[in-house]
């Protein structure tokens, strides 16, 4: 059978990314132009600043991806692009570019859900992984527990009722003046702290599959304020470790519970927070106790990238799910929506 | 030589193809539907009916701004991708010049305006001299009342052109030396963009490729403005 070459474009937040894949799971190139440094001074991603950077960089990133993959645009079989969820202005740069590429090259266009992309990062890393399985999607914008029934077929079991897990990490990091983005900094500092130092609350919400991180966040912010008021020393490492432990314990236990109750023996982690070392350790430990295999993508595929979009797009493509030129960005696109 | 032109700087989406000195096709949709929904289907449709293959296009012309930030980027991303595939030159023309181009050969002074939100407009001033569009005042963002004041105090006759005219029509109608053209001239037109681009391309002015052309916003993002104000306050020790 002839190889299928996918060109994928991703611009939903603050990375401009283009990737080339062979047969959906083999990366030929995966170029990520990150804007983290640019947004640091604002303490978070500024949509207009991100969009301006995307339009400046997109063609250079595309060319680099083609050069590294050692192919030309004419070798491509289809184009995959993120059309949601994400920042509207940012999404529209990649989407408009990809649509015009597809039109000019006369190749099929496949719109991809960014979150489904994160899940698909696991297919690239674990060549034998096939649906069905349970996936825990954790990032700055999302916290979802999902049943992957088939390629491109999802059923949401639970989601956060307030803050996303990654958002809570960012806010606590900001409150302690640790900088942006907060997740990796907390992860690093927590390694030197005592995770049992402070007893932060765990929200199990009547044992369902939904999450809530606002209680944990407020509790941590109150703790910091109280310490400041009393002029007591804050052991940043202990706060990081205890906060992280509380978040990670809820995430891990709920994912294990879902797998057991739904009868699955695989859980795949996805999203930026899937690179958190404490989450990986905790859920792997619980997985061993329950005979559940825990999978997660390598760090480079946890952050936003286009390879994961290409993989999800490949499965959409071979299943005939393609889009026409009227495809628009959907900033609040839900997982499983078409 | 065929030029494909794209203008998404205001609410209207406009595309056209000019072949040498002949306008082959033009398509304008001036509704609230997003540029993202309108632009590519319009290009696809227009080229299809006109029996033009996208690969026959030699030059891409695009409105580089100022105007709606997101709109400009949709047009620019589209122009860049088409140019990228076929390694074409891209000619950028600013939005106020395109509007002035609608008033080809008129003997009055021309002031083009585009909505810049609240009571501000993007503005440029032009006149035709010896069949050429001459810039009187460089593109800028100004308060509409200050602009009206300035124009009414001048001893010239002015044509005010652009979609934003309708937002301030009541005020503009009160000024004797300000004239508003018919609706057909008050919308950004890709045909006008084509002609200006052809002229520039032949003179090799404002010719870019997909890597080095970018929108002209005139204004910084709100976050940058606020950040600079904050830094200024800190430096002033307040
Ligand atoms: Zn993401």
What is the strand and helix layout of this fold?
The complex is a heterodimer of chains A (338) and B (238).
Chain A: E1 5-10, E2 15-22, E3 26-34, H1 36-40, H2 47-69, E4 78-84, H3 88-105, E5 109-113, H4 114-125, E6 133-138, E7 143-150, E8 153-159, H5 165-175, H6 182-190, H7 214-229, H8 236-262, E9 266-270, H9 277-289, E10 293-295, H10 299-302, H11 307-318
Helix pairs in contact in A: 2-3, 4-11, 5-6, 5-7, 6-8, 8-9
Chain B: E1 2-7, E2 13-19, E3 22-29, H1 35-49, E4 59-65, H2 69-86, E5 90-94, H3 95-101, E6 109-115, E7 120-129, E8 132-143, H4 144-153, E9 158-161, H5 169-173, E10 178-179, H6 190-203, E11 207-208, H7 222-235
Parallel strand pairs in B: 1-4, 4-5, 6-9, 9-10
Antiparallel strand pairs in B: 1-2, 2-3, 5-11, 6-7, 7-8
The complex binds zinc ion.
Structure summary:
The complex is a heterodimer of chains A (338) and B (238). Chain A has 338 residues and is of the alpha/beta class.
Describe the main β-sheet of chain A briefly.
5 strands, mixed
Biggest sheet descriptor of chain B: 6 strands, mixed
- Terminal CA distance of chain A reads 29 Å
Helical content of chain A, roughly?
40-55%
Report the sheet-strand fraction of chain A: 15-25%
Number of helices of chain B: 7
Strand numbers in spatial order across the main sheet of chain A:
3-2-1-4-5
Secondary-structure element order of chain A, as H and E? EEEHHEHEHEEEHHHHEHEHH
SS summary, helix count of chain A = 11
Sequence of secondary-structure elements of chain B: EEEHEHEHEEEHEHEHEH
- The amount of helix of chain B comes to 25-40%
Which ligands occur here? zinc ion
Largest protein-protein interface? A-B, 36 and 34 residues
The helix-and-strand class of chain B reads: alpha/beta
Number of strands of chain A: 10
